[in-house]
Amino acid sequence: MTSASPLSPGVRSPRKPKGQGAERREEILDAAQALFAQKGVHAVSTRQIAELARISQPALYAYFATKDDIAAELCVRAFAILGQRMAAARAAYVLTPENFERCLRVYIDFGLDHPDAYRVAFMLEKSVDGSFLEKTGGRPMLAGREVFAVFVEMIGELYAQGAMAGEDVMAAAQSLWAGLHGLVSLLIARPEFPWIEREALIAAHVAMLRRGALK
């Protein structure tokens, strides 16, 4: 006999003793991220999040006023991780054409290392009427644009070296970003597709992006 999944509806977890604020906040976010990634944002309630986090619903509201606030914080948290990885890559590598593929891999590795975080930040619809950004003060978009700005700076450095094809830095950055997102989102969303060996696919994809972007 198999046990029910902790994400299954109707499964009630025992309440946790009151913990430290920062720790409890992260537990709420982790529970919400798991539920959002499995069911989608719209299908999840704050009651379900509280159940999985093993706290009461009123206790959840002491940290987050709405489900939108939780989703927004998850986006900000995901972008922060990606931003940290990009910053580390810039510190570790001299940005040259030879290191270009390594820099592109930072994005891919982030998404595949954190698939649930990636789903919530990049792949899931947050509001049917498009009001999510307004309700959350635009924080997710601001955090995402800050990370993208670092990527644009990296591409701009290669343009300054005369290494990039074309003349439009922003067009190149957006095209490369879209190419990276396409691969990551497909690998996360469609694992059942008969892909070739994952590392071989990633290497081939990044090499094609490099050949298209560099002179």
Structural topology:
Layout: H1 21-39, H2 46-53, H3 57-61, H4 67-92, H5 100-113, H6 115-123, H7 132-135, H8 139-160, H9 169-189, H10 198-213
Helix pairs in contact: 1-2, 1-4, 1-6, 4-5, 4-6, 4-8, 5-6, 5-9, 5-10, 8-9, 9-10
CATH H-tier superfamily of the largest domain: Tetracycline Repressor, domain 2
What's the architecture of the largest domain in CATH terms?
A: Orthogonal Bundle
SS class: mainly alpha
Beta-strand residue percentage = under 5%
Q: Taking all residues together, what is the mean pLDDT?
A: 89
Q: Tell me the distance between the termini.
A: 60 Å
Description:
The structure is a single chain. This protein has two domains: 21-61, Orthogonal Bundle (Arc Repressor Mutant, subunit A); 73-213, Tetracycline Repressor, domain 2. By secondary structure, it is mainly α. The chain has helices spanning 21-39, 46-53, 57-61, 67-92, 100-113, 115-123, 132-135, 139-160, 169-189, 198-213.
Question: What is the structure about, briefly put?
Answer:
The chain is mainly α and 215 residues long. It has helices spanning 21-39, 46-53, 57-61, 67-92, 100-113, 115-123, 132-135, 139-160, 169-189, 198-213.
Characteristics:
single chain, 215 residues, mainly alpha, Arc Repressor Mutant, subunit A, Tetracycline Repressor, domain 2, 2 domains, elongated, disordered N terminus
